[in-house]
Amino acid sequence: MAWEHLRPGTSPVDWCEGNYEISSNIAEFVNTISNFLFILLPPILMCLFKDYGRFVTPGIHLVWTLLIIVGLSSMYFHATLSLLGQLLDELAILWVFMAAYSLFCPKRYYPKFCNKNRRVFSILMFVSAVTATGLSLWKPIVNAFVLMAMGVPTMYMLYKELKRVRDQRVYRLGLRSTAVWLIAVFCWINDRMFCDVWSAISFPYLHGFWHVFIFIASYTVLVVYAYFYVENELPQRQPLLKYWPVDEFEFGIPFISIQNPGAHYKSDI
Asked: Is 28 labelled as part of a ligand binding site?
């Protein structure tokens, strides 16, 4: 039936948290509400990156919007455990990756045939996203593992770029992002692979912690890559990492301020 995939429980994926234990209407209550940062923080980031979107690339707002879609899709998936919810969740994450790569991947990591042209690379990412979307629909059971693996090249490039960066605030943010990402991966793997152990101590909620930590890691990594993009390709714009609401407090919300927005430049985007 056409509506079969909308039914609760049709997903082959079921996380460690017990189903319908806290609410009779929500399958995995903690895993559902733990997506709150995906909904709350991107609108703030859109405001903080207003000048970045105006003077560097408006694409940054697309990434923040996609993060909201990830949060909404994840909430729907964990609330219903439907196959449609699973696919929406995973495909939203896939498109965040591809959009971020298209916008911010340093050109030194491009395949040779792209000839360091961001437009060509963006087309490659779009075609890859469409292809991966089709494969995701074909074999949804492997999607989560593939998406986890996509974080590895992201963090490897971050490691390489942090060795080049001169701004120590950016360097420290990159290190904190990496640490939070590792904590998030620890939570995901333990919830997925060692559910019996955590259930035995009555704490089957690590996937909820994964949502919190992976959002923090994701948006801070995006901030660092947004800095790299301006520093590498538009240095005359003079990017500066700042924090909101208090700039001196480095555990606030980071964003990139453009110090010289009127500088002339030529871009291939």
From this structure: yes
**CATH number of the domain encompassing residue 226:** 1.20.1070
Question: Annotated binding residue at 17?
Answer: yes
Q: Annotation-wise, does 61 bind a ligand?
A: no
- pTM, two decimals, is 0.92
Instruction: Provide DSSP, 118-162.
Output: HHHHHHHHHHHHHHHHHHHHH-GGGHHHHHHHHHHHHHHHHHHHH
pLDDT tens digits along 194-234: 999 999 999 999 999 999 999 999 999 999 999 999 999 99
Structure tokens at 210: 């994964």
5 is in an annotated binding site: no
Q: Tens of pLDDT along 162-204?
A: 999 999 999 999 999 999 999 999 999 999 999 999 999 999 9
Would 150 be classed as within a structural domain? yes
Domain assignment of residue 77, given as a range = 1-259
199, two tokens = 């259930």
Burial of residue 251 (CB within 10 Å: 0-12, 13-18, 19+) is: exposed
14 is in an annotated binding site: yes
Report the candidate in 23, 16, 34 with the shortest Cα–Cα distance to residue 202: 16
